[in-house]
């Protein structure tokens, strides 16, 4: 079920009313309702894949007891079993065809022709997210940060809580599970904040991202026919499309969770106001970046074991991050590009310059240095996004080459309004709103109700085909 | 909790009042568009049928299908050369099974359709909502509320200035007296994106489905004529030609009441097309002349027409 669909706006109030009015007598009843609603939410797309979700949940539930109760050596065995199980599911459904094709190409290079069997299956929605929920739980149990949960329903709610099920934010067991196990009471302020976030998220998705998508799709589908400036505009538009799309989704997810009395991790902190790549990655898809930091980068040694090890770890993190997004070389290239952008900062010990605070924290506007920093970071990120959006590395390179060649041949094109320039009608208000909110997101509270009504009207009239969120495919 | 529910209800009620009143105002504007389904082309065609109900009743030849029939056949030639009433009910992305609601499968009708590989992909015009055509404003308002973004694109397309014949491109929604799309002679390669646009590939299941639809419907009518359209060289392939031949044989074997005219192998110059599969006006005229000629000479069209 899509958040931006009519079905969801029937489903959400129904579950909300049942949750607070009918099933509010006990925590167990509420959790059972959330579990049933979550499985309905997921099964509405395809009930076949509910089995996979249930299997993954059952196995991790069982492994966690073994990990907690056995000695370290045998616990490690079950930890690895869980990792293999979760990554095995991902491997079969997400990566098998990719590796089989690479295997075939590799053999073809040496003149051998093999025909590996390819699987004719669709990628189950949200598989990368719920497997990471399960892994986070097992890791936390292994590190004694979390006790194994005895109540299966509670654990299943943690894995499949419907606002987070298909595209995150990726929660940590030690953060979400205690909330599942604690009695929840209705909080007016929390619910109102949830509604505001849902509205704001829908605005970003339906009004901004979906309109930008039209411009982006035209450009990426026909880049050979378009001039350089139009392609530049489309690349910028994609940077904002993916931001509005995914941060919009996260806002709706966080807002929905608030309606049920849950506080979940934040996923975005105004990433395009970052002054370098390191800051960008502390502000973009925070729940995934911090997941990789905690469960991969630090266990690999982080930056504490010399520069060479740190460089290796950074490359591993970004490669895995790219590969997590999809079994395709363009995502791997996107990861490598980001690693290359991060590396100079690491080598110069400047990767932790902007850890706290936000640009122009005590001022209305940024100074020239900050503008240049934000500008160069944005340009770098936008170039990397081209690889993310294109269907292959060759298309991405062709797209970028076409921009350069076109501008070199016809520099006069800058004097004309490029195709797709109406993208800025959507981009500029988003930048202004983000700039206004950057110091304190609670400012959303201060917005007049009439403005929310206007936003709701805009959402309503932009509501259409129910474009899926970009991150559903991961 | 009560405060939250009451406030939310007031908010939602205000929102719906605003959008309902505005939508009512919008659909009541002079253009009064028949927004009864989410297919732009089908809505316009429904309006045309509403205005030409008698033509539908008395037509001996009913043309059905997708843009392959809407654009690629010049139905006024059929009407003039045979001197019988002809109506073209086709619209973008329509499938044969979609025509059940028009009640066209009758013993005294000849059904003519034209097809090509785009017909085997997903529906271009979008799935219809299934509402019967009606001029009721309330229904239109409700449909508009359900799918405002389609309504908006629909309204924009209808606003396009097509007073100049040269602007009658593939996308135009104006019809001649038979219901065929008005196209311009001067347009070929009119849209750089459309010219080489890719269409979804076909599957054997789609051929089987279509064969079953033809089988069940062709027995209800006087005669069914199926033409398989030529395409630009860029859209032609030997494997597709073999598939068409296979399909033709299957139709001929299973449906005795059907005349299958396979023109897929006919070569026509690029300047007769607006993209890989759709003709411009000149292409449609030449193609239709060929169909009429073949039907008259090889199938004795004038004899069984009476």
Provide an overview of this structure:
The complex is a heterodimer of chains A (474) and B (306). Chain A has 18 helices and no strands. With 474 residues, chain A is mostly helical. Chain A folds into 2 domains: 6-185, no CATH class; 190-275 and 354-473, no CATH class. Chain A is globular and about 70 Å long. Chain B contains 12 helices and 5 strands. Chain B has helices at residues 2-27, 40-51, 53-58, 67-70, 75-82, 137-146, 148-159, 192-195, 204-218, 238-254, 281-299, 301-305, and strands at 61-64, 86-88, 110-115, 223-228, 258-262. Classes of the chains: A mainly alpha (474), B alpha/beta (306). Chains A and B meet through helix 9 and helix 18 of A and helix 1 and helix 7 of B.
Number of helices of chain A: 18
Provide the domain count of chain B.
1
- Which assembly state applies to the chains in this document? heterodimer
Helicity range of the residues of chain A? 55-70%
Radius of gyration of chain A: 23 Å
Brief summary of the model shown:
The complex is a heterodimer of chains A (474) and B (306). Chain A is an all-alpha fold.
Topology summary:
The complex is a heterodimer of chains A (474) and B (306).
Chain A (H helix, E strand, L loop, with lengths): L5 H17 L4 H17 L6 H20 L2 H38 L17 H16 L9 H9 L1 H4 L7 H9 L6 H34 L6 H32 L17 H7 L2 H12 L9 H19 L3 H19 L20 H22 L3 H17 L13 H15 L11 H14 L12
Helix pairs in contact in A: 1-2, 2-6, 3-4, 3-5, 3-6, 4-5, 6-8, 9-10, 9-17, 9-18, 10-15, 10-16, 10-17, 12-13, 13-14, 14-15, 15-16
Chain B lengths: L1 H26 L12 H12 L1 H6 L2 E4 L2 H4 L4 H8 L3 E3 L21 E6 L21 H10 L1 H12 L32 H4 L8 H15 L4 E6 L9 H17 L3 E5 L18 H19 L1 H5 L1
Feature tags:
heterodimer, A: 474 residues, mainly alpha, 2 domains, 18 helices, B: 306 residues, alpha/beta, Rossmann fold, 5-stranded parallel β-sheet, 45% helix, elongated
